[in-house]
Amino acid sequence: RSLKPGQSIEGVLGLIGVGVEEATSDNPAGAYIKAGYKFISTPDFAFKGMKYSHILKGGYVKPEFAFATYQRDIRSYNGLGINTYSRENIVAGALLLNFGKQWVMSNVFLIDIYGGIGYGFDNMKSVQNYYEYGGPTYHYGFTVGSNIPIALSAGFKVGFLTK
């Protein structure tokens, strides 16, 4: 939602594990939210005598908060060749600073590409067999490092503008 020229807010609500068998061995189920405030720069170029065509077009910086809570199956190996699974609750969050660029075509169609870095946390160290995963953990919207609490985010969005 555009608040005024050069500034807008954005929110995302996502459902984890609904209808997609991307991670069949983990069987994830939960939700995540993301919210941020965009500071959009002036346009890259201007023609003489013409005004800027759309207030959402240009490069931007977006401070963002992300939070995810979900359940997934965690595999345990007992040393005798038998795998067992337990259902674990995962909670993760991040404060990110995203940098991106968005283009608006015909005041209707939007393309947005971005990447971000910040501070992240999760409870994966308390989850059984955490070290079996070895490395950053993807939390359906952002990644948190295993030893250093650095969070990363990146994306590509395509959409239609409404009033």
Can you put this structure into words, describing what you see?
This protein has strands spanning 2-4, 7-16, 29-40, 58-77, 83-105, 109-122, 137-138, 143-144, 150-160. The chain has no helices and nine strands. With 163 residues, it is mainly β. The protein has a nine-stranded antiparallel sheet with strand order 1-2-3-4-5-6-9-8-7, with no helix packed on it. A hairpin with a 5-residue loop joins strand 8 (143-144) and strand 9. The chain is elongated, with a radius of gyration of 20 Å. The mean pLDDT is 80.
Gyration radius over CA: 20 Å
Which class of secondary structure composition applies to the elements? mainly beta
Unreliable runs: none
Biggest β-sheet: strands ordered side by side in the sheet: 1-2-3-4-5-6-9-8-7
- Net shape: elongated
Q: What is the quaternary state of this protein?
A: single chain
Q: What profile does the largest beta sheet have?
A: 9 strands, antiparallel
Number of helices: 0
> What sequence of helices (H) and strands (E) makes up the elements?
EEEEEEEEE
Question: Strand percentage, roughly?
Answer: over 45%
Fraction of helical residues = under 10%
Number of strands: 9
Distance between the termini: 9 Å
Mean pLDDT: 80
